């Protein structure tokens, strides 16, 4: 009896524990989110089940009292609390649980409404107003509050990332603004933030070098406020990538130039800024190109070798890509870009020499390949605008820094390459290219004071049969040799081409002889050109050319007499150092006959070139010359000027990301349209050639060594007219012409037979 009674009591305890565990489990279930109807039903079902279990347990205790009265009395004496059980308590507990379930469902509905209200208030708090911006600006200017600086930089980040698909970011304190507020934030931050950061970091108001920032990185102010500097520069870079308005871009770059020294502490940002500035320099208008150049130049001066290499490589690539096509207007823009590049080289001459050596060597290897292989593809790599403009670029660099000992050594190999290019294909169609090469050699000789024998190149052109016989192609249109590398076969036979060539040869020969018109050996070096000029005077039948040659010969003879009279009175030998100072005073006064004649010839050439250009408006001419008096930075402008320029730049309703959706829609429409291949007509090709290069897309100008070989790739030029004279190429490339297959010969014979048959049929019909 005792053991059985204990088992029954333990079963009752387990039953009571089960009730408690079930109650806890049901409470957990009640905590899960459900709709109101399901919560009510679940509460009623739980109420019924608990009542039934309580009634069953009470009946079991009654049966125990009746069947085992002794055990019941024993339990009553020793553990009376175990037998105390009332179903009414369970009913009260169940009613309380049901009420709490209903209360929970009601609270859930209240929480949802409160969440909506909180979200609404949060959105209202995230909206940036003009009053908020004004209050921050006032606190910064008057009280120098750091909290206001952080708030304006948060607002600046929101402005720069406005329109980005970032989703619902709970950490973003601000997210909404109008275009007027955007403009106000951009003007204040770009105008004032550089000065604010310099005060916090205890730096001078302007300037600074890399060493200063490197020392600053170990101080407490930098550790406290470097995140503000990085936020300002990083967000500015982000919005700069999205800007399309020229005024905004110019103002932003101009203001960021003052903070460029901070980029030495952030190498990743520095590389990105260089890429963006190179993009604007290579693809923007002349005003944006100037601002971008000043930004890059300031980086190179302040940061040194950290960015000089990337800037030189990137600008060189951008220059090459802009030289695809040339016309009269584009030629001036290319000259402007070249002068910008030359100005950048002056920031670090020693580093510039290394790059000049590498790039000039690359040009020499391309020329050597053409001389060795003698194929049309190799000739085309040399006789293209990219190659010729690169020669002109390095010619300008050598002439600009001829007094510097670092760049002077590359003058000799550069002159050798130019001479080789001029002699590569010696035909009349390439007279414009040869004249360009002679002009480059004259510039190198004048800047370095070195004698370069260019007279033979010029005299060989006068001996060509196309310039000695009467023109058979009529008068023809005016030929602008500056915008051509090669002329067409019909144009070679025109009178206009003959005149342009002869007059250009005379101009370059006068330039060459004028450089040495004060030399003690002028009579000797001018004797052979004089003999060949007399030969051309006798052979030509054109009276206008005879008159030109007669006048030039007389000027050379007059200059020889002028020099011979002066050197008859001296006692030194031509190889002595005293010969260098011969006629030095007369040279400064330009008293020689050839110097005076050169002034007339230059004026005539200028008038002839202007008559060939449709418009006298030259793009970028005024801003194409840099030197010691380079455009100064705007460090001296006061706050009123900055605000005025900023208001002029940020006066539109533009916001970042506002045009991204339109672009995506346009791209989708273009993808949906079927692609049609249309063959371009000759007129369209000419139109493209004249206007090409205006909208060149250059995204990344910092290239690796593997990409350097692709700069002069000619795959993109296959649709154009063949750049190499077929007759000359066939004469030079003899081994390839002999390799003719039998299949080719057979097809030619069959074609010739068919041609004869059709010709005979036409004759019979006639």
Q: Report the β-strand fraction as a percent range.
A: under 5%
Mean model confidence by pLDDT? 76
Q: Considering DSSP H and I runs of 4 or more, what fraction of the residues is helical?
A: 55-70%
- The termini sit apart by 142 Å
Instruction: Categorize the overall geometry.
Output: elongated
Radius of gyration: 44 Å
Largest sheet: none
According to DSSP, the number of beta strands is: 0
Please, how many helices? 35
Broad structural category: mainly alpha
Uncertain runs with pLDDT below 50, 5 residues or more?
22-38, 87-94, 98-102, 614-636, 675-700, 715-723, 728-749
Main location: nucleus
Region (Disordered): 1-64, 93-116, 624-746
Protein name: Nucleolar complex protein 2 homolog
Family: Belongs to the NOC2 family.
Give a brief outline of the structure.
This protein has helices at 2-30, 36-67, 69-78, 80-83, 87-126, 130-143, 146-160, 179-200, 210-216, 220-242, 246-256, 267-283, 286-303, 305-321, 328-345, 349-373, 376-382, 385-400, 411-422, 431-448, 455-462, 465-468, 489-492, 495-515, 522-525, 527-539, 543-567, 584-589, 593-612, 639-649, 660-672, 682-691, 726-732, 734-738, 742-765. It is an all-alpha fold and 766 residues long.
